[in-house]
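tool_call: predict_structure(chain=1)
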Amino acid sequence: MQSVLEAYGFDANIASVEQYGSGLINNTWKITSNAGEYILQKINESVFKEPFSIAHNISFIGSYLKKNHPEYTFIAPIVSKDGKEIIYLKGEGYFRMFPFVSGSYSLDTVQTREQAFEAARQFGRFTKLLAGINMDETKITVPHFHDLSLRYHQFVSALKNGNKQRIAESVDLVQDLQSFSGIVDEFERLKNNPAFKLRVTHHDTKISNVLFDSDGKGLCVIDLDTVMPGYFISDIGDMMRTYLSPVSENETDFSKIEIREDFYKAIVRGYYTEMKDELTNTEKEYFFYAGKFIIYMQALRFLTDYLMNDVYYSTGYPMQNFMRAKNQCTLLQKMVEKEYALKGFFE
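tool_result:
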């Protein structure tokens, strides 16, 4: 840590360092020094194979917003002593630093529909403000991140090549997930539909990636590692997957899983408030599908990992990925049960 702090010009002897946040991918610390407060992150190289692509996107997006929308609160990275936005230290890894925004806060869970609305509005605003950016200059930071067709192919491959005992024990859940394969067919159709536009999309719209001000209003979005070209269903779907149910993907009492209709409406309203003039008429018909799309993909990914002996997601007990997959399959089933009530909702 001393060498990292020195690279940014801090006196390591007087700066305090403490773990910060609840993120599962990057390691994060809060740095307090006589110069102010900062957020330091170590980038997870097993997830982000090309960290300098992240730096490029953040710099490119920041420059565009500063020129075209200077009123937007964009948390630009702090440059190191040698002028770099991401530093690499041999034997230590890749690091970057941001200013800590005084008076702001983030949430680990969505507690109210007002918070869901504000978060959705911020993610919609972010994409709307970047509508005029040159997409060709943005880089892919996680290839095929939300490619449902690929995730289904990996699932099918795991059924052939995975742990035979786990496959046999998962037969009921496998059949349940196979019964929803029409969601993949729909994804293939929309990819070839010119009415679906590639836009600068966040791809990781959990509530902790929104900063709120002291009045509880959304301030801006943060954690831009997964920002890259994508479809709007990725952002809407991830919000639905993580906001609609009062319990997380790690809950094993599936009776607690539910779809909160008022939260669904808050997400749609918040995002649509900002994106109503950007979305095509065809896209506006796919809000409900977005939830099915992401929930299904996450269920597939959890079960695929379980069948392949837990090589991607960290686990605390042997069947955790299986239980996560069953959790998400239950959430998907609950979502489909609400289709008649929610699919036609739009304001």
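agent: Strands lie at 16-19, 27-33, 36-42, 87-89, 93-99, 199-201, 210-212, 218-221, 228-230. Proceeding to next step.
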